[in-house]
Amino acid sequence: QVQLVESGGGLVQPGGSLRLSCVASGSFFSINAMGWYRQAPGKQRDVVAQITSGSRTNYADSVKGRFTISRDNAKSALYLQMNSLKPEDTAVYYCNIEDRRPWGPAEYWGQGTQVTVSS
Predict the structure, then answer these.
(1) How far apart (Å, rounded) are the C-alpha atoms in residues 11 and 24?
(2) What is the CA 73 to chain-centroid distance, rounded?
(3) N or C: which terminus of the chain carries fewer CB neighbours within 10 A?
(4) Mean pLDDT, the chain, whole residue set
(5) How big is the CA angle at 110 (ends 106 and 114), to the nearest 5 degrees?
(6) What is the rounded CA–CA span in Å between residue 66 and residue 77?
(7) Which residues on adjacent β-strands are paired with residue 58?
(8) What does the angle CA 25 – CA 27 – CA 32 come to, to the nearest 5 degrees?
(9) Do residues 71 and 51 lie in contact, with contact meaning Cβ atoms separated by under 8 Å?
């Protein structure tokens, strides 16, 4: 059984920083793309940042230059360094993993971690 556990969320003042972590456990065939998504109250879940197995990254325009996504394949871990946080970054953040299986891909989600940016 695959499980993703996120940590690192919390309350931070505008301009502050947080580092989110996501550790995957269980049986994977081959982890492909990994990503962070967020969902604010009353809004849809949107992609924040993604990283491929070859460590190519892409970011939502709203976080470019402020957030950095990284992965540690040996630990099956995903990270999101968030700097210069703004109130509009407030949301529940979810990690996502794609498992590239020969019989078809599978996608897994974490339970989410709350990030609140407020003075």
Answers:
(1) 24
(2) 15
(3) N
(4) 95
(5) 150
(6) 20
(7) 50
(8) 85
(9) yes
Give the count of beta carbons closer than 10 Å to the beta carbon of residue 51.
21
Tell me if 78 sits within 8 A of 16, measured CB to CB.
no
- Quick check: 115 and 18 in contact, CB under 8 A? yes
Percent of the chain with pLDDT over 70: 100
User: 19-41, pLDDT tens digit by residue?
Assistant: 999 999 998 888 889 999 999 99
- Which of 94, 86, 52 is closest to 67 using CA atoms? 86
What whole-number distance in Å separates Cα of residue 74 and Cα of residue 58? Answer: 22
Positive or negative, the CA dihedral 116, 79, 39, 82 is: positive
Tokens of 108: 């897994």
Q: How far is CA 17 from CA 14, 64, 117, in A?
A: 9, 15, 10
Give which of 6, 27, 25 is closest to 111, Cα–Cα: 6
